[in-house]
Design a protein that fits this description.
Order of helices and strands: HHHHHHHHHHHHEEHHHHEHEEEEEEEEEH
Structural class: alpha+beta
Shape: flat
Helix content: 40-55%
Number of strands: 12
Number of helices: 18
Number of domains: 3
Strand order of the largest sheet: 4-5-7-8-9-10-11-12
Distance between the termini: 58 Å
Largest sheet: 8 strands, antiparallel, barrel
């Protein structure tokens, strides 16, 4: 049965296998660590025992232990399989006994991915690696009612299938596929009439009409799926006006209910149902960006703070999300390594440190009108368990180091205040406290740059003035431009040093910024390893 927009026929299976393998691999990270209290109790009482019956929590191994106090630790199936492994091998390896739950989790994710990818309607929680439903309650409620719709359609399809090519219970005879005689042909109008009457019977028997939300979702998705199955809006409009489907009507939601806007957003992305189709009638899964864009277009009013932030400032929301994930992943890695009496993984902590750098910088560069005194990724407060001495030490390191590639020399900036006009436009300062010229003379350099950001590149233009320390006269400011890459951590500055006559020398400098932030995060992760 046609359910989703056309893709490669094996795409759902490939995706399911990939997600299943990835899930299993993720669960096996750190699988060699020592068993926790509950896992150790399970292993001692239900697995590593002489009698296979112990897997069923019949009696405790130690008579003094009350059975009901440990029986909740027993997962009978896993305990039974683990007991068989123990009886055959005598192994006490933690990895061996964590392999079965990891495989089960991978199989669950894989099978779910295959099944869900073949549904007609996408899920509100299907984006963001299937976590978008946590952004707001209406998305989760939509998924519930979409599940109700799927169940109704499945029951209706079964009823039309088992009645065979005959009329029954007020339903017309459906048409069966020629290439699969035991399956109904949903592209045939008679089959859709049968399905319409069957859906009506299930709808009334379950009294789903008492729920305005359920009636609304079932009506909207039914209309969309009938249109997709028939392959023509004109044919579907005529069929939907017949008694078999006209009973759906046009249910209305209570005023202010955001379920309608959520449904419109989730079903906004369409594609052809078959190769060569003239109309794009089948639904496709929206990406998280497409979902958020569609929610804004539909006038969706968010109920939760995360969704409000995602709709108002997507870059900042993504950065905050990445930062929280990195913080929690780091806490888990450090805590588990201490419990297992081992050093934290260098690869994991280095990756999380770099993730912190990206997330905090992305958050700094996003947002609306604000004055930012310190653009580095050094946090305002030390993370829990980290000495505040690291904060003080990090601020001793320059924020930016610039190298003059024309005349030689270097410039060091420790703080560069910036006025953020929007996530794409800002007025940045040049505040090189110490400039060492190629001749060895010392100076300070001050200036302003108007910066515009687009597609990961920052383009700026402004002026700067050099203030010599030896008492020489201050020349007229020079005109400069700047190109920033990698969240503006790498930059090329070019222009004219001064507009004063006789001093209009060319300027080309390469700079690296956020050095103190880089040093801070790598230092505390290095300390955590020790």
């Amino acid at each position: 049965m046609l359910r989703r927009a056309v893709t490669h026929q094996n795409a759902p299976i490939v995706v399911g296998l990939a997600l299943g393998v990835a899930t299993t691999a993720a669960y096996l990270i750190g699988s060699g660590r020592s068993l926790g209290y509950d896992a150790a109790a399970t292993f001692a009482n239900f697995i590593a025992t002489p009698n296979l019956v112990d897997a069923f929590a019949v009696h405790p191994v130690v008579p003094s232990i009350v059975l009901k106090s440990i029986a909740s630790n027993d997962h009978v199936f896993f305990s039974l399989v683990s007991h068989v492994i123990y009886s055959l091998t005598g192994s006490r390896s933690e990895v061996v006994y964590r392999l079965m739950p990891a495989l089960a989790a991978g199989a669950t994710v894989g099978v779910s991915a295959v099944v869900l990818s073949r549904r007609f309607a996408p899920l509100g929680g299907g984006a963001l690696l299937n976590f978008s439903g946590f952004l707001d309650r209406p998305l989760r409620e939509l998924d519930f009612h979409s599940g109700v719709y799927d169940a109704v359609v499945q029951i209706a399809s079964r009823l039309c299938t088992v009645q065979g090519p005959y009329a029954a219970d007020g339903r017309p005879a459906p048409v069966f596929r020629t290439d699969a005689p035991l399956e109904v042909d949903p592209s045939a109008e008679e089959t859709q009439r049968c399905l319409g009457e069957a859906v009506r019977g299930v709808f009334e028997q379950l009294r789903l009409g008492r729920s305005r939300r359920a009636a609304f979702v079932i009506a909207k998705l039914s209309q969309l799926e009938v249109t997709a199955q028939l392959g023509s809006r004109a044919v579907a409009a005529r069929l939907l006006a017949e008694p078999a489907w006209s009973w759906l009507g046009e249910p209305q939601l209570p005023p202010g209910d955001q379920l309608g806007a959520a449904l419109a957003a989730v079903t906004s992305r369409t594609g052809p149902c078959r190769e060569g189709a003239n109309e794009s009638l089948c639904l496709a899964d929206p990406t998280i960006d497409e979902l958020l864009d569609a929610l804004q277009r539909s006038g969706y009013v968010p109920a939760s703070a995360p969704m409000r932030e995602a709709l108002s400032d997507r870059d900042r929301w993504a950065a905050d999300l990445a930062e929280r994930l990195a913080d929690r992943a780091a806490a888990v890695e450090i805590s588990s390594s201490r419990q297992a009496d081992r050093a934290p993984s260098d690869v994991v902590l280095t990756g999380l440190g770099l993730g912190q750098l990206w997330a905090r910088r992305a958050r700094n560069l996003s947002g609306g009108l604000s004055l930012e005194l310190d653009p580095s990724t050094i946090p305002e407060r030390s993370p829990r368990g980290v000495s505040p001495v690291w904060l003080v030490a990090a601020h001793v390191i320059p924020y930016r180091v610039s190298l003059d590639v024309v005349r030689g020399g270097a410039a060091f900036s420790f703080i560069e205040p910036a006025l953020r006009l929007s996530s794409r436009v800002s007025i940045d300062s040049i505040a090189d406290l110490l400039t060492v010229e190629g001749s060895g003379r010392l100076a300070s350099t001050l200036g302003l740059i108007l910066t515009v950001r687009a597609s990961g590149v920052a383009l700026g233009a402004g002026f700067e003035s050099v203030l010599p320390w030896n008492g020489d006269s201050v020349l007229a400011p020079g005109v400069i431009g700047r190109i920033g890459l990698m969240q503006e951590r790498l930059a090329i500055t070019f222009g004219v040093r001064s507009l004063s006559s006789g001093h209009q020398a060319a300027l080309v400098a390469l700079s690296v910024s956020d050095l103190n932030g880089l040093a801070y995060w790598l230092a505390i992760w290095g300390a955590s390893r020790k």
